[in-house]
Amino acid sequence: MDKNRLNDYIVSHLDEALENGWIRPFFQPIIRTITGGVAAAEALVRWQDPEYGFLMPADFIPVLEEKELIYKVDCHMFIETAKLQRGRLDQGLRVGPISVNFSRSDFDVMDVASFVQEQVEKFHISKELIWLEITESTLVKNKDKMRNVVKALRDEGFQICMDDFGSGYSSLIFLNDYTLDVIKLDMGFLRSFSPVSREIMRSTVNMAKNLGIRTLAEGVEKEEHIRFLEEIGCDLMQGFYYSMPLSVDEMDHYIRRDDVHPESIDWKSFYDAADSHVVNSDVSLGVLEYDGDRDSFHYLFTNQKQKEQLRSIGRRNRRESEFILNSAHYPMHEKFRALIEYAISTGETAVMYFPDNSFFVRLAFRMVVKQEKRVIITSSLVNITEDRTRKTGEILDRSAEDIALLFDDVHILDPDNNTADNVINNFGIDGGMKKHDDLRKGLKAFCRNMVHPEDRERYMLYADPDTMKDRLHGAPGGILREYFRILRPTASGELEFSWMEIDLLLIPRTDDSKILSCIKNAQPSSGLGPEDMVNLEKPQQ
Ligand code: C2E
Ligand code: MG
Ligand code: MG
User: Fold this and answer.
1) Which of 78-82, 464-468, 532-536 has the lowest mean pLDDT?
2) Residues 448, 466: Cα–Cα separation, whole Å
3) What's the CATH number for 27-44+71-254+261-275?
């Protein structure tokens, strides 16, 4: 094909091609990494010419850019996209954002901000339904001007993607000059997929996350790309692995496929909030989704640190953890559920300690966002076995799993050294005593935060570390037992006082220097008969 002849043809037939619909958008799906759903699409121009056949952007964009005529194509693409979105909304279909490309010269020959504003008003579509893609080179070379343009567009409510990030000479410092919504990592990084390019992607994603900017990887073609992007926490993916750019009809067909899940714009901020927590730092982290309709949990992400921690307690992968959360047959299932419900109803970090496969584990949940019946929760799971004193470990090793099911809180108290060593804490609240806490301070805090006001005086006498040993020596069997009303999360997650039994006993072979304190539910369901409740010297509830 004679390039010069084609270039002349393109310039002279541009208007005709636009009028006759030879120039049309194709759409390439954009996938949200954590869900695998189609979160957006990019509009890519195609020229179906009666004389030259199917023309790709590389055949006609350079010459139109050179002649500063590309704005005609870009305006047409924007209008066609707006029209499509309007049509889909009218049909009541699930609609996600579509990004449209703008060339550098567009910003010289027209007022892009006014144009896009007029069009969304004309078609009555929300601005979040069309993203604008501007290449890195446009932003770098026209910095002063583009800063104002980008700001104006964002102020109006449009989302801006920086296209082909890393293809030019930009440095990360450059991001200081702009507030952007999405960085599209140039497909050159995945093409080479070398240790260096992987490291650049990893640090770009981390940095963008810290700045609150989402990241999209272009040119995803292989499964190993996906695994890597999942690991580093890249938010969005686009490439032939998922789909080529598709015509409108093909796209319709694609999103109806059983294995394709289009994400509606209504859920965008929900999953964006989840994405903002997907960080591959060295702190153990998982991101979970709870689906209230199915009453099931599903891991969206686990970082390397959390995977290591899971492996260290003999859990092979996150699917196994997911199974435990979803399977009512697993003994700890109810306690995990109660902990999550507590985290959801209070918005607080809910913490518990429990033994698993003869390791001690600290598990914390925190709610990120809730919409309708779905909730995003972060989890932190840390194997704390290594931190624990050996003696405590030996004492509790064998019966540990049973104790965790029986008791809500187990502490080893050392009144002489004023320490409280936490063994099990199912209270779901960090407000109780923590490991190696200051015993006297911890008891006071527990009394103040957790114990019913009418029981507080009696509790302080019972838990008095200065007299505890003497009282235990005098007690039959060396065991003390009393009942108190203590704040507990109910099944629905609300806090409520319920009767709890607190047992104190001297730990053998510690020269009477250590005392085991165990707290458990005193409701009849725990095996305690009603007659036990009547014997209690306390005002009835
Ligand atoms: P881009 O905006 O970076 O678009 C991505 C390009 O990568 C598209 O090429 C797409 O088909 C291609 N691509 C997507 N996934 C893969 C993959 O997995 N492997 C490989 N090798 N390629 C992949 P396309 O459609 O040929 O567009 C090329 C460029 O032309 C675009 O790069 C964009 O800069 C420009 N362009 C396309 N449409 C428009 C438009 O409407 N206006 C303007 N100004 N530029 C456009
Ligand atoms: Mg693009
Ligand atoms: Mg690109």
Assistant:
1) 532-536
2) 19
3) 3.20.20.450
